[in-house]
Amino acid sequence: MKRIAESTVRRLSLYLSFLEEIEGRGQTTISSDELARLGGTTSAQVRKDLSFFGSFGKRGLGYSVQELCVSIREILGLGRKWRVCIIGAGKIGTALARYEAFSKRGFYVKAIYDSDSAKVGMAVDSLSVRDISRIEQDASKEGFDIAVLAIPPEFAQGVADRITAAGIKAILNFAPIQLAVPTDVTVRTVNMALELEGLSFALTNRGN
Amino acid sequence: MKRIAESTVRRLSLYLSFLEEIEGRGQTTISSDELARLGGTTSAQVRKDLSFFGSFGKRGLGYSVQELCVSIREILGLGRKWRVCIIGAGKIGTALARYEAFSKRGFYVKAIYDSDSAKVGMAVDSLSVRDISRIEQDASKEGFDIAVLAIPPEFAQGVADRITAAGIKAILNFAPIQLAVPTDVTVRTVNMALELEGLSFALTNRGN
DNA sequence: GGTAACTTGTGAACTAATTCACAAGCCCCT
DNA sequence: AGGGGCTTGTGAATTAGTTCACAAGTTACC
To answer: How far is CA B140 from CA A205, B136, B137, B167, B168, in A?
Structure first.
């Protein structure tokens, strides 16, 4: 299969969220044009995005909302449940652990870790904060698929090394740092300072 | 000035974070190559990114860490303090309000709002949750530059309409929805479900 | 069954972003 | 003062991503 651009995957995710809402409203078919308007893109873009994975529509008619939902879920690998662990029981870590939107989309937070012994044992919803020293043994025993890193930047690389060594292949990184990981590990970084600075740039340079 | 790509702005932000760390360690000059390695890109990319805004280095020698910090801060508009309000005192909103990294970077959270009267008056650090109905009058009186939207998707567009009408030109949106705003308003959306789904895609299609 | 009105799927054309490659400039050493 | 070793800044080439445009397929209706 040809390499798929990250932008394409993002858009598929976005289309799926619209399709699910539309499905809930009882609409049964949708055209690439309607989907494009919802996603702020063009109909050609929608069709091209889908064409990398097959042909899902009917000419003259559009796409079956239900079938397209199923197809995109399959493309994105959402047909199964993913086991997530959160590392860092600070403000961000605990907020994420309590965030229901994750489990709604099939991502189940199974454990939360911290290195601070004062936090270990603390309850976060139905979970109890575990000591980070257990991460290696837990990772293989409990089969975590994804680790969410919500720790200070100075510890992030060290923890990333440990969890990738323990076999975790996907990391959602909230630390404002560029992680170095083996090539078979995927990292997505969410850096809020960077987003705010992008807004600062836009405000400063607006009006040309 | 030519239109600057969002990817360029992101990278400048990233370079700045490295430069600040390096400055703290006492290193006085840096080459595009070293900066590129830190940022996971190429030296040509670093030089090109900077070249859109001027020439900041010395041939044969590299860049002065201190001067480059100052220049990038100026490019990004970080020479001033930005006034931020957070809308939504739920899990994400309160976690963001308490997040110190914002003020370190010059973004000051001045107020937090919610529509739930049970939450209004509640303390979040030194702030007290205000009723959302006050947002219009507060926005002009207190001169908010940036609004952070941390509310359920079904309310996000309505609130976005109100705050843009009230003159706010920049929105950091955590609601998983595509906001429609006037062209002079900049929106950055952080959608964690979408990031997780990107990881799901990578895990599912790894090894090609 | 034929035709009109749509909409997809996809090469081709175009636009944007990244990488190459090298002249020009700077520092250090002798 | 001149040469060698670096590193920047930037047009040119390349690669990646988006948009165009149209043949091909589908439905509805007469």
So the answer is: 21, 7, 6, 7, 9
Least CB-CB distance to B105: which of A82, A106, A193?
A: A193
CB–CB contact B91 A98 (8 Å): yes
Tens digits of residue pLDDT in A46-79: 999 999 999 999 999 999 999 999 999 999 999 9
Task: With CA atoms as reference, report the closest residue to A14 among B42, B189, B165, B163.
Answer: B189
Q: Which residue from B93, B91, B96, B92 is spatially nearest to B113, judged by alpha carbons?
A: B93
Q: What is the largest CA-CA distance in chain A?
A: 63
Question: d(Cα A115, Cα A95) in Å, to the nearest integer?
Answer: 18
Token pair listed for B146:
């940036």
Pair of tokens at residue A164: 């990738």
Interacting residues of A193 by C-beta distance below 8 A, sequence separation 6+: A176, B13, B17, B101, B102, B105
Q: Taking the complete model, does pTM exceed 0.85, yes or no?
A: yes
User: CA A85, CA A94: separation in Å to the nearest integer?
Assistant: 12
The partner residues of B114 in beta bridges, in order of sequence, read: B131
Distance, in Å, from the CA atom of B166 to the CA atom of B161, rounded to the nearest integer, reads 9
- Residue of chain A with shortest Cα separation from B201: A76
